[in-house]
Amino acid sequence: MKFCTVINCMDGRVQQPVNRFLQERFGAENVDTITEAGPNGILAKQEDEAIIQSIFKRVDISVNAHKSKGMAIVGHHDCAGNPAPKEEQIRHIRDSVSFLQKHYQNAEIIGLWVDENWEVSEV
């Protein structure tokens, strides 16, 4: 089985469209899903070390045990956990990708934006 990993918002509206997108994008059968409220803001700002370490612990399981070949960090429209405007959230996504690449150098890491119509696009 082929796995990929997503660090996604806990908001249930984004789960299915993101998983479908990632299964296609990485050719994965399964998507290991790590959720937090506004994870793109958490990883970009790097202010809460405990949450960041929790995310890393879960990503490590996906990468090491499931041999995940790709990873995504997600931001979305109408996010209660990161209520920043779209432009700022996109910046958070890009900063999160850079931060994650320092820790997971062998993984392909992408950023995703989910718009008001629940359409997913790479940023």
Count structural domains. Answer: 1
Radius of gyration: 13 Å
- The N- and C-terminal alpha carbons lie at a distance of 27 Å
Mean pLDDT: 97
Q: Please name the CATH topology.
A: Beta-carbonic Anhydrase, Chain A
Overall outline: globular
- How many strand units? 5
- Main sheet summary: 5 strands, mixed
Q: Biggest sheet: strands side by side, in what order?
A: 2-1-3-4-5
Low-confidence stretches: none
Helices and strands, in order, run as: EHEHHEHEE
Sheet-strand content, in percent, reads: 25-35%
* Helical percentage: 40-55%
CATH superfamily: Carbonic anhydrase
Instruction: Please give the CATH architecture.
Output: 3-Layer(aba) Sandwich
Protein model, in words:
This protein is an alpha/beta fold. The protein is globular and about 35 Å long. It has one domain: Carbonic anhydrase (Beta-carbonic Anhydrase, Chain A, 3-Layer(aba) Sandwich). The mean pLDDT is 97. It has a 5-stranded mixed sheet. Helices cover 46% and strands 25% of the residues. Helix 2 (39-45) packs across helix 4 (86-103).
Write the layout of secondary structure elements.
Layout lengths: L2 E7 L2 H15 L3 E7 L2 H7 L3 H17 L4 E7 L9 H18 L4 E7 L5 E3 L1
Structural descriptors:
alpha/beta; about 120 residues; 5-stranded mixed β-sheet; about 45% helix; 5 strands; 4 helices; Beta-carbonic Anhydrase, Chain A; single chain
